[in-house]
Amino acid sequence: MTDKVVIITGGSRGIGRATAVAAAERGYRVCIGYASNEAAARGTVAAIEASNGKAVAVKCDVGEESDILKLFKAADKFGTLGALVNNAGIVATTSRVDEMSAERIQRMMAVNVTGSMLCAREAVKRMSTRHGGMGGVIVNLSSVAAKLGSPNTYVDYAASKGAIDSFTIGLGYEVAGEGIRVAAIRPGLIDTDIHASGGEPDRAHRLAHMVPMKRIGHAEEIANAILWLMSEEASYVTSAILDVSGGR
Ligand code: NAP
To answer: Are 217 and 14 in contact (CB under 8 A)?
Structure first.
């Protein structure tokens, strides 16, 4: 159990929500960010509070640096930061690269890559022993798409997650001597709303037969892996990337 604060970007729905609930169960004070769905964010906070947990929700589009600064300010008021889960991420509709607009690619990178890097920057400023902090953990959400490349679907998304893998390795080395562990999870096909936001609500179910375990995963199964990485049980794990994908 810990009474430290965890910031979870995109904590209102899907994997972020499951992680927020699981973190609160382990005693974390949970600070979630959300992009626009205030009702969903309130729902996550209410679920945590109903189990006597502590949670707060802050509107934060991670594509906007000013929003990220607001999120961390709110977390500072809530307690000492012990962990960051860089979970917020977007996909876009199915497309070939030769059909993609610059705006689409820029937004993909702004949210999935720059947003995660800026959140990590703010977390390191607070958690690094170099800056007087007490250490902590950063968990980044990558995707098996980083390995598969997602041709004819969303190569831009896959490339953004490839960047997250490299960032995880590099930042992990950079802060390994400063009390901070950095790791990433590569989820496979997980049952969340993200597939609908890419225009294909039944994508995960449609592709389930391609998963060696022959089923899609659940948000809670990703949350469990994130919580393990955040825990002392993973005390010697850093710059590591864990596939949680049913073998995909
Ligand atoms: P989801 O169900 O679509 O939920 C997305 C969450 O992120 C929501 O809380 C949403 O907030 C928030 N969000 C969206 N855009 C944002 C932005 N610009 N700034 C801040 N927050 C934003 O997604 P998910 O499936 O749980 O995915 C979570 C992470 O896992 C992502 O990084 C994704 O790439 C990764 N992942 C997912 C799968 C999968 O199959 N589901 C597979 C591999 C990797 P609102 O509620 O306000 O919209």
So the answer is: no
Q: Number of C-alpha atoms within 13 angstroms, CB side, residue 130?
A: 10
**Tens-of-pLDDT digits for all 248 residues of the chain?**
678 999 999 999 999 999 999 999 999 999 999 999 999 999 999 999 999 999 999 999 999 999 999 999 999 999 999 999 999 999 999 999 999 999 999 999 999 999 999 999 999 999 999 999 999 999 999 999 999 999 999 999 999 999 999 999 999 999 999 999 999 999 999 999 999 999 999 999 999 999 999 999 999 999 999 999 999 999 999 999 999 999 99
Q: Is residue 122 within 8 Å of residue 69, measured between CB atoms?
A: yes
Question: What's the pTM value of the predicted model, to 2 decimals?
Answer: 0.99
63 CB near ligand 1 (under 6 Å) = yes
Among 28, 34, 154, 157, which one carries the catalytic annotation? 157
Residue 187 CB–ligand 1 contact under 6 Å: yes
Distance CA 78, CA 75 (A): 5
The answer to whether 189 and 202 have CB atoms below 8 angstroms apart is no
Q: Which CATH superfamily is domain 5-244 in?
A: NAD(P)-binding Rossmann-like Domain (3.40.50.720)
Task: Give the ligand 1 atom nearest the CA of 112.
Answer: 32
Q: Where are the domains of the chain?
A: 5-244
